[in-house]
């Protein structure tokens, strides 16, 4: 329905100004929310910087302390060090790495006898979700990590890897995702459940 402030009468004449007023009010509200969000983000960033500075002073190497003092220590490196310390499980499990192309190539070569399968990283599809079932071995890993990092959240994850070039075959890799709130950070690590890879051939 169209309204015209120049020709409408009565309440219809008031609609365009009121719509414009509400539109401007919405813009102001959005701007105010954005300012608050930005201020919160900046405050959180400063809190993280301060937390890292204190952590490096207490736990960093001499070389890291020197770079921190010079303002050139990357935040990612410090977070990695914090995560290493908080998830100190002594090399108990290998880390899950995003090496789907290499995993699929090895799987195709060893399980299907393909001499030189080529799987490019851009060909890899990964579908990840929380696992709905767990073998005794997988559940034992979950419980072990819960014991080693008692204040963390531990979840069994299922990653189904497939390739655009070999669509009839998929490879499932199970990992255990561990997350933990520590100061202003949410730390996370995912570990591979060793010897739990499963092959699946899709029906044609």
Word description of this protein:
This protein is an alpha+beta fold and 204 residues long. The protein folds into two domains: 11-78, no CATH class; 91-201, no CATH class. Helix content is 47%, strand content 23%. It has five helices and five strands. The protein has helices at residues 11-59, 62-70, 75-86, 100-112, 136-148; strands spanning 124-130, 153-163, 166-182, 185-192, 198-201. Strands 1, 2, 3, 4 and 5 form a five-stranded antiparallel beta sheet that branches. The longest helix is centred in the N-terminal third of the chain and has 49 residues, at 11-59. The radius of gyration is 27 Å and the shape is extended. The chain starts with 10 loop residues before the first helix and ends with a strand.
In summary, what is this structure?
The protein has 204 residues and is an alpha+beta fold.
Summarize this structure as a short list of keywords or feature phrases.
alpha+beta; 2 domains; 5-stranded antiparallel sheet; 204 residues; extended; 5 helices
User: Count the helices. How many?
Assistant: 5
Q: How far apart, in Å, are the first and last alpha carbons? A: 54 Å
Strand content: 15-25%
* Number of structural units classed as domains: 2
Radius of gyration: 27 Å
Shape: extended
- Nearest-integer average pLDDT: 85
Largest sheet: 5 strands, antiparallel
Poorly predicted runs of 5 or more residues:
none
The string of secondary-structure elements, in order, is: HHHHEHEEEE
Structural class: alpha+beta
**Helix-residue proportion:** 40-55%
Count every beta strand, where a strand is a DSSP E run of 2 or more residues.
5
């Amino acid at each position: 329905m169209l309204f015209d402030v120049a020709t409408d009468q009565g309440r219809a004449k008031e609609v365009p100004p009121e719509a414009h007023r509400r539109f401007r009010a919405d813009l102001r509200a959005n701007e105010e929310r954005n300012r608050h969000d930005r201020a919160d983000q900046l405050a959180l960033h400063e809190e993280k910087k301060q937390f890292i500075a204190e952590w490096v002073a207490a736990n960093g190497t001499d070389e890291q302390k020197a770079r921190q003092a010079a303002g050139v220590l990357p935040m990612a490196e410090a977070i990695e060090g914090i995560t290493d310390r908080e998830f100190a499980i002594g090399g108990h499990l290998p880390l899950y790495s995003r090496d789907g192309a290499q995993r699929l190539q090895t799987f195709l070569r060893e399980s299907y006898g393909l001499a030189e399968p080529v799987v490019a990283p851009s060909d890899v599809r990964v579908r990840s979700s929380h696992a709905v079932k767990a073998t005794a071995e997988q559940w034992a890993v979950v419980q072990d990590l819960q014991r080693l990092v008692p204040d963390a959240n531990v979840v069994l994850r299922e990653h189904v890897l497939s390739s655009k070039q070999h669509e009839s075959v998929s490879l499932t890799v199970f990992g255990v995702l561990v997350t933990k709130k520590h100061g202003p950070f949410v730390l996370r690590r995912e570990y591979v459940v060793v010897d739990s890879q499963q092959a699946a051939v899709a029906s044609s």
